[in-house]
Amino acid sequence: MRALLLAAVLVCLTACGVMPTHLRVEAEHVSHPFAGWPCTPQLGAEDALSQVSALAAWRGAHAFAEAGLGYNLRGTNGGGIYGPSLTGTVRVGYEWRVR
After folding, report:
1. Which of 16, 28, 45, 80 is the most exposed place for a label (fewest CB within 10 A)?
2. Does 11 fall in a domain?
3. CB under 8 Å to 68, separation ≥6 — which residues?
4. 53, 68 in Cβ contact below 8 A?
């Protein structure tokens, strides 16, 4: 049943022309660069997120949009952001070519 639903969603997206132009997987680490030693006296004050993600991206001439799902490598409330291990990411932006 899930496979049929997924296939139907993919057919609808393809028919509407909103299929992503790029797909990627990534590993990322996000943290506060000036929290914790040596910048502040509190040892271990840094709260960081390390995750692996799968993202779909839509790119135009200069504008882009990305959406994805990730997994917090530190586990549920083990660091990073609070809550379940599954994370969501959305980015929208504009790029300039410099070369």
Report:
1. 16
2. no
3. 53, 54, 55, 56, 88, 89
4. yes
- Let me know if residue 3 belongs to a domain: no
Task: Name residue 29's beta-bridge partners.
Answer: 50
pLDDT per residue rounded down to tens, the chain (99 residues): 666 666 665 655 555 567 888 999 999 888 777 766 666 666 554 567 888 999 999 898 899 999 999 988 876 555 666 777 888 889 999 999 898
Residue 32 lies in a domain: yes
pLDDT of residue 97: 86
- Percentages of the chain per state (helix, strand, coil), in multiples of 5: 15, 40, 45
Pairwise CA distance, residues 58 & 95, whole Å: 13
What's the domain range around 65? 20-94
Identify whether 5 is part of a domain.
no
Structural contact between residues 74 and 82, judged by C-beta atoms closer than 8 angstroms: no
* Partners of 3 in beta bridges: none
Give me the number of domains the chain comprises.
1
